[in-house]
Design goal:
The protein is an alpha/beta fold. It is built from ten helices and 13 strands. Helix 3 links the parallel strand 4 (65-68) and strand 5. The chain is globular. InterPro entries: Epimerase_deHydtase, NAD(P)-bd_dom_sf.
């Protein structure tokens, strides 16, 4: 198979390229530039938000599989950004052109923010969808429209509700990299919701799930999948583990424990559907945290 990847320079995208490389897949990148370390890949150069007609670019790529990760994801801004609306439009035009130029199988990254978070433990088949914020609403709209569009074109589509991928390369302002900076004595302590539970997944396993679902499209695998560990991780335990890995005292952070208004006590996905396709995680939570600490300068 030949895979066309969008969002390749992003946090998840770089890990996806690594998994595709390990599989020996033929890969082309659709975007403005190739990410560092992958300069050997084919580049189909485009600004996805500025491109009006994707068909010539997709004909040039000649890919049978599309792995669409590109979206606005700047930490602290993406949740309410009007750019979410533009990404709905770009996603649909991209998928339409993919089908029109002979594409067969697509995977697109959604979010756990498409769900009703009040349920805590979220299942594809019976948890209601109640999108959170403009980001979640835009992803939900893109999924609904993309599902209908791909069905009409005979393109199989797998959609991933992504839950808390973490690991090397994560944005510095996010919780885990920020905590590592605290425990290394380079930043002041801050409070986190230590009573909460989250379904955290090491990013290499999340990337492998994306690639696995895309490849399984030829075997009839499609629809919605939770990309998650399936296991609730205590944020307090995460804080203590990071502190131990950094030979630091967790108490300055634990003493500032706080929760944001509306922050759900538990947000964990059920991954039964994903496991049924043959995907398996390769890292435990502890191993993933150790890898993140080791990789952070």
């Amino acid at each position: 198979m030949k895979v066309l990847v969008t969002g390749a320079s992003g946090y998840l995208g770089r890990h996806v390229l690594q998994r595709l490389r390990l599989r020996g897949a033929e890969v082309a990148v659709l975007g403005r530039r190739l990410p560092e370390g992958f300069e050997d890949l084919e580049l189909v150069q485009a600004d996805l938000l500025a491109t009006q007609d994707f068909a010539p670019l997709l004909k040039e790529a000649g890919a049978s599989h599309l792995l669409h990760l590109a979206w606005y994801a700047e930490y602290g801004k993406y949740w309410a950004s009007p750019l979410n609306l533009r990404w709905v439009d770009a996603t649909l035009r991209l998928l339409q052109a993919f089908g029109e130029t002979g594409g067969k199988h697509a995977f697109a990254a959604g979010t756990c923010a498409e769900y009703d978070w009040s349920y805590g433990y979220l299942r594809e088949e019976n948890t209601p969808l109640l999108p959170q914020g403009l980001y979640g609403t835009a992803k939900d709209a893109a999924r609904r429209l993309a599902t209908a569009l791909c069905a009409a074109q005979g393109v199989s589509l797998a959609w991933g509700h992504v839950f808390y991928p973490f690991g090397p390369g994560e944005a510095p302002k996010r919780m885990l990299p920020s905590l590592i900076e605290v425990f290394r004595g380079r930043a002041p302590a801050f409070g986190v919701n230590t009573s909460a539970f989250r379904g955290m997944l090491p990013v290499p396993d999340a990337a492998e799930a994306f690639v696995h679902l895309l490849a399984e499209g030829s075997n009839g695998v499609s629809g919605r999948f939770n990309i998650c560990s399936g296991q609730p991780a205590s944020i307090e335990d995460v804080v203590r583990t990071l502190a131990r890995l950094c030979d630091a005292d967790p108490n300055p952070v634990l003493a500032l424990a706080s929760a944001r208004a509306g922050d759900p006590p538990m947000l964990v996905g059920d991954n039964t559907r994903l496991l049924a396709t043959g995907w398996r995680p390769t890292q435990t939570l502890a191993q993933g945290l150790a890898a993140q600490v080791a990789a952070q300068p």
